Amino acid sequence: MKPERRPRRRHRDAQQRSHRVVVRFNLAERDEIAEAAAARQQTVSRLVATASLAAARGHSVATDPQDRLDRAVDELAASRAQLARVGNNLNQLTFGLNAAGYVQPTELALTLGAVRRAVAVVDDTAAKLVTGGSLGS
């Protein structure tokens, strides 16, 4: 199974990885691992490498710091798109005010509410990224 979006590449070490390890799974195990990788929007190779290294280093296999950053980037990108749409609405309202001399108060209130919600999402995500809080799935 391929992830829905193209997975982000891991940060490369200064020294290139030149060794390969062959791992064998039965069909059910392979499918289970592929589903887990797809759920995390990772390649199977990345999931296996990350989990193996975490276990070897005595860390929790359940979380990958890069996953957290990937989710943050995705959420901020979605917020950016939402803010761009809201900005377009504000531009249209401003044009209406300047061209026709009026803006409907209800339109303005709805747009300002959308701006406040969008900015709050960006602020919350940025704060969680800085503090290490949960970013959700």
Descriptive notes:
This protein has helices at about 25-40, 45-55, 65-100, 105-130. By secondary structure, the protein is mainly α. Helix 1 crosses helix 2 (about 45-55) and helix 3 packs antiparallel against helix 4. It starts with about 25 loop residues before the first helix and ends in a 6-residue tail after the last helix.
At a glance:
By secondary structure, this protein is an all-alpha fold. It has helices spanning 27-39, 44-56, 65-100, 105-131.
Secondary structure topology:
Elements lengths: L26 H13 L4 H13 L8 H36 L4 H27 L6
Mean pLDDT: 77
Please give the alpha-carbon distance between the first and last residues.
19 Å
Number of strands: 0
> Helix tally?
4
> How much of the sequence is in beta strands?
under 5%
Structural category is mainly alpha
Helix content: 55-70%
Rg, alpha carbons: 22 Å
Largest sheet: none
| Oligomer status | single chain
Sequence of secondary-structure elements: HHHH
What are the segments in which pLDDT stays under 50 over at least 5 consecutive residues?
none
Overall outline:
elongated
